[in-house]
Design brief:
Elements lengths: L2 H11 L7 H16 L7 H24 L7 E2 L2 H11 L2 H12 L8 E2 L7 H11 L28 H8 L2 H4 L9 H23 L4 E3 L3 H11 L2 H12 L4 E3 L10 H17 L50 E13 L9 E7 L10 E5 L7 E7 L4 E8 L4 E9 H7 L4 E7 L1 E2 L10 E8 L3 E2 L2 E7 L4 E4 L5 E9 L4 E7 L4 E7 L5 E3 L5 E2 L10 E4 L5 E6 L19 E7 L7 E7 L4 E4 L6 H13 L1 H8 L24 E3 L10 E5 L3 E5 L7
Parallel strand pairs: 1-2, 4-29
Antiparallel strand pairs: 3-28, 5-8, 5-13, 5-14, 6-7, 6-9, 8-27, 9-10, 10-12, 11-13, 15-16, 15-26, 16-17, 17-18, 18-19, 19-20, 20-21, 22-23, 23-24, 24-25, 25-26, 28-29
Helix pairs in contact: 1-9, 2-10, 3-4, 4-7, 9-10
Pfam families: C2_GRDP, GRDP-like, GRDP_C
Organism: Gossypium stocksii
InterPro entries: GRDP-like, GRDP_C, GRDP_C2
């Protein structure tokens, strides 16, 4: 970063924002999570009713409250109304115009609490009941109840249905990622948001027309800021002297289209202005949301689940697995200097770990395209320890020019911004020992480490199935003991103990001893998968194929999906399901979520599935839905580095939202986060 670029960044950070954007973004993410638990708000009659209630009940109530306080405490907005209000505010110019037309002023969220709050609700309910005696404060989310709803004349012309549908996918891109709640990550995002506004300001000052597209971390902060409409108008007017419009209507990520071109230009402008990389780990487009299961908690009858029983984890201490953490890393090669004279041809860099881990166990390649406008980065996951080995290679002939290593622990411990960029001197190849050392400029960003899933391999021996961790350490061995009247699953632990872990019941289910798990087939659900329940308060179904978080959405239907089964838990927290385990029936690899209490039950379930896999497929009757592949952690490494290298010409790495700005266009921005194909 040159001195002029440093001054630009320092100037950007002087931008005054009157909202605590880190704390507010965390509340924003909690709200999006709660809305996603009520997905009937995304479409259909529930959405129609919510819009009606927002226009005719919530806005008038809010108008009275902002004109003259009608409560000693804050108003608490109903969830359905808050969702529509949320989407309306994300078009700040239109929201301001609508409020001023109907109420003579902007209706702010000052002294208003979110529906996710558990306090102050009673007073709001009482006022609501007095003002609207025939309309309940809480919306009944049952679509059956609302089928006969007729939408009356509208008080706002803005198409709120379309606004909601544009914002609905945002949860998957933002709230579902745990690093988005990290203070360091969010602090960096706020600083980058200020840089984004400063870039737009410079474009306006220079009458430069452009379409600026944010990465997803910037877009998340931008959304949060807009949820405070009065503060947003004041802050942006103070910085830019005009209101910055947020346009989320463009979602075409095709190469050379507006979104793609805008993101490429924004990237170049950012890096020229500030001298640092625009792309960041954990802030890029993650693809489409996984396919829905077509099943939710309300559709599961309670015949097979005892809601009153408390889960037991008595088998949890039977096995011991080392807890691992994982982080995402993005690397860009920003320059090479002091190459030997006479060296011709293209260069590339290989990246590996000195001691490979389960996530990064082979070399990843990235080309160095110094003479083209195309920008590339490589994204991968690994444990936050050990050393990355970077090799500079030539294509013709293929040979190593030099090598360097980077301590991951040193990066994680010392880089508070989750980003660094510096020159590294390479240890030269012996044939180049007399030459001046080659230097490579490497920019790397990473997400805060999180707990990784457990990875278990099943190895079949003569009598036992041995389950090992990724380092081939024994966890437990299981075998089936077959009596004339019943069967038992016998476990032999690594410390020598023998346990009867499960027994087949007369109802053709399996009880797990010392716990409340009870696996069984539920015929009513065979069209969607094979159900197994648990005699307690958890509901789990085993689906054929890769589902939800284990689905790989690359647009290709993989035939090998038929070798996978996904265990999905349904709960109040995850009413539409959370994938908790994946079984690869071909390689006998099991991936289990980070919840330790699931390890033993999922190992036993996998054993039962592997033992009777042919019966499982007959039960499914090939009616299950497809999924995806897993072997080494989060996703299999594509062959030859495919889909690992991300290019600026791959369809746009920026958001479904950006900013048309410059000359006479005013302040028009488009949002949706970064595009990453």
């Amino acid at each position: 970063m040159e001195r002029g670029q440093e001054l630009e960044w320092e100037e950007a950070q002087k931008l005054a924002i009157s909202v605590d954007l880190v704390a507010s973004t965390k509340e924003h993410l909690r709200f999006l999570t709660e809305v996603d638990r009520n997905q009937t708000l995304y479409d259909g009659p529930v959405l129609d009713r919510a819009i009606y209630r927002y226009k005719h009940y919530w806005l008038p109530l809010l108008g009275k409250h902002t004109e003259s306080t009608i409560l000693e405490g804050p108003l608490v907005v109903p969830l359905d109304c808050e969702w529509i209000w949320h989407c309306h505010r994300l078009n700040p110019v239109r929201y301001k115009a609508d409020c001023e037309e109907l109420y003579g002023r902007i209706l702010d969220n000052k002294n208003v609490m979110s529906a996710i709050s558990t306090t102050c609700r009673r007073q709001t309910e009482e006022i609501w009941k007095r003002m609207y005696p025939y309309e309940p404060y809480e919306l009944n989310m049952s679509s059956q109840f609302l089928k006969n709803f007729v939408n009356y004349s509208r008080s706002i012309e803005y198409d709120l249905v379309s606004a909601v549908k544009r914002q609905s996918p945002f949860f998957y891109q933002q709230a579902s990622e745990s690093h988005m709640n990290d203070d360091v990550f969010l602090g960096g995002a706020v600083a980058r948001y200020k840089g984004f506004l400063h870039l737009i300001k410079r474009n306006w000052e220079n009458s430069k027309r452009c379409f600026c597209v944010p990465t997803y971390d910037i877009d998340l902060i931008w959304h949060t800021h807009q949820l405070y409409p009065v503060s947003y108008c004041k802050d942006v007017m103070g910085a830019l002297e005009k209101i910055l419009e947020h346009d989320d209507t463009d979602s075409d990520r095709t190469k050379s289209k507006k979104l793609d071109t805008g993101f490429s230009r924004t990237t170049k402008q950012w890096e020229d202005m500030f001298g640092c990389r625009y792309w960041r780990a954990g802030a890029m487009y993650g693809g489409q949301a996984p396919s829905p299961l077509g099943l939710n908690l309300s559709q599961l009858d309670n015949q097979w689940w005892d809601e009153k029983m408390v889960p037991s984890n008595e088998n949890q201490d039977m096995v011991s697995l080392h807890r691992k953490t994982v982080m995402e890393i993005m690397i860009e090669i920003d320059g090479v200097k002091d190459l030997p004279q006479g060296l011709k041809g293209s260069l590339f860099v290989t990246i590996n770990k000195k001691q490979p881990d389960i996530f990064l166990n082979n070399k990843r390649n990235i080309s160095i395209l110094c003479n083209t406008k195309e920008k590339q980065a490589i994204v991968f996951q690994c444990e936050p320890k050990g050393d990355l080995v970077i090799e500079l290679m030539s294509y013709s002939p293929i040979k190593t020019l030099g090598t360097t290593s980077i301590s991951l622990k040193g990066i994680v411990d010392s880089v508070s911004r989750l980003y660094a960029e510096e020159w590294f001197d390479l240890v030269p190849n012996l044939t180049l020992a007399d030459s001046k050392p080659i230097s490579v400029r490497i920019a790397f960003s990473f997400t805060p480490p999180i707990l990784a899933h457990y990875m278990v391999q099943m190895v079949r021996h003569f009598k036992y199935h041995c389950f090992t961790d990724e380092a081939s350490n024994d966890i437990i061995s299981l075998h089936m003991r077959d009596y004339q009247t019943r069967k038992e699953v016998i476990g032999l632990t690594s410390c020598g103990g023998t346990h009867v872990l499960a027994a087949e019941s007369a109802e053709k289910g399996w009880f797990l001893n010392n716990s409340h798990w009870w696996f069984h087939v539920h015929n009513k659900l065979n069209e969607n998968g094979i159900a197994f329940g648990f005699k307690g308060n958890r509901k789990v179904i085993l689906f054929r194929g890769r589902k939800l978080g284990f689905e790989i959405n690359d647009g290709k239907k993989l035939k090998i999906d038929e070798h996978f089964m996904t265990a999905v838990e349904f709960s109040m927290e995850y009413p539409y399901g959370k994938a908790i385990a994946l079984f690869n029936l071909k390689s006998a690899i099991i991936e289990i979520s980070e919840e330790e209490s699931l390890v033993v039950p999922m190992i036993i379930l996998a054993f039962l599935v592997f033992e009777s896999s042919s019966n499982c497929w007959k039960s499914c009757n090939n009616k299950g839905k497809g999924g995806e592949v897993i072997t080494n952690g989060i996703k299999d490494s594509p062959p030859d580095g495919e889909d690992e290298v991300k290019s600026s010409n791959c369809g746009g790495c920026g958001g479904g939202c950006g900013v048309s700005c410059g000359g006479s266009c005013g302040g028009h921005c488009t949002s949706g986060g970064s595009y990453w194909n």
